[in-house]
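User: Hey, my collaborator sent me this sequence without any context and asked if I could get a structure. I don't really work with proteins. Can you help?
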Amino acid sequence: MSRLFGSVRSRATLGATLVVAVALVTAGIAVVLSLRSNLTAEAGTQAERSARAVASELAAGTAYGDLSGLDGDDGPVQILDEDGGLVAASEDLERISGTATAEVKPRPSAPGGGDGDDDSGDSDDSDGSDDSDGSGEDLDPGEIARETTFGSGSATIDGDAEDYRFAAVDVETHDRGRLTVYAGAPLAAEHSAVATAQTAMLLGLPLLLGVVAGVTWMVTGRALRPVEGIRREMAAITASEDLARRVPEPATHDEIARLARTTNQTLAALEASVERQRRFVADASHELRSPIASLRTQLEVAAAHPELLDLEGAVEDTVRLQHLAADLLLLARLDAGERPAGTPVDLAALAREEAAGRTGVTVDTEPAEVTGSRGQLGRLLANLLDNAGRHARERVAVTVRREGSWAVLGVADDGEGVAEADRERIFERFVRLDAARSRDDGGAGLGLAIARDVAVRHGGTLTAGAAPTGGALFELRLPLAGQG
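Assistant: No problem. I've predicted the 3D structure and written it out in structure-token form, which is a compact way to encode the shape of the chain:
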């Protein structure tokens, strides 16, 4: 059971069915109550017409025995005097409830009161009618009260028992005082209509809920079919470890299509990251192989012929290995998401510090404080100065200025510059535009890659362009302290 309702499709179907069920039950109850109220009101109107017709005859002085409404064809009728005594009633009336009295036979002493039979019939109390004993209006002889009171009850006429809606109307007669006429209209139509509506609802509700559940199940399944396709493809990618594969993208503009596109973007980024890591490992192995092989050769020669030991070359290879290992370690930390320390760093002071002792380097700065790691920012600036020093003819210019909420550091040289097509490629790892010279100078093609990674980790950018002197211009932009 838990597995069945563990799917989105099952939960959506169950939820939609429950919502529709609640809505239908609520609407059904409202319809039944409204139908019952309308039909009861209609029966009350019919009973009022009958009561007023009898009251009109009484106001005209018609004798009880001549009243047309006492034949029982239009429903039960009772006529009560001021004392609440029954003075006239419908023919064949055997039992009644819901009026002011349960008597069904007129009093023998009543004038015009039928055949004088003293059988009082069923004298049970009323069953909770809301009738009153009169309207309380002051009436002139021959006048009928405007107010009508209503109640519900039952009556048995000639052996037929039914529920009725009763109307009570007062009339002031010329010779018999104030009389109250009770007339009833049958509620059979109301009961029948309500019963029919309830039956239709009881039969139709399960059928309608079944249709809703089936349609929801099909629509949800159709809507989730692309999700299942994405899941299967992701499972296949995981099993095959082929990150070049992509999940199918539906030709729609809904959430599932956006999910597929985002998934493919994630796969593309993951593929690029893995490929980058593979290239990194391969390039690192290649870069490490040369100094290690050179150092090993020198040591082997020295072991066989100590007099031929190139101590200076061995030291240079060792230093090169040390620098390369440090670069690789820093890149590994950056790739692992290491966040820089949030300490204030005076970029102008750092530029002057890194430029000190370098030949041909000029510094022009203004105060600009940023937040980050002083060590990483120092490494960034050192890498830019090392790169500029390798390519400059005579001099390197370092500038620091403020632009709005940014601190801008520029390193420009007067060398040959960088071709526009290579201005992004030089920031890739192990990329050297002049491989032979870079290797001789100890460079492994990691300096600019490290510089850009450090800039990005500090919320900034590092770009390459053309310097005014014709050489290369590297521009670092970092948010000022309190602005990033």
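In plain terms: The first strand starts at residue 77 and ends at 80. You can pass these tokens on to your collaborator as they are.
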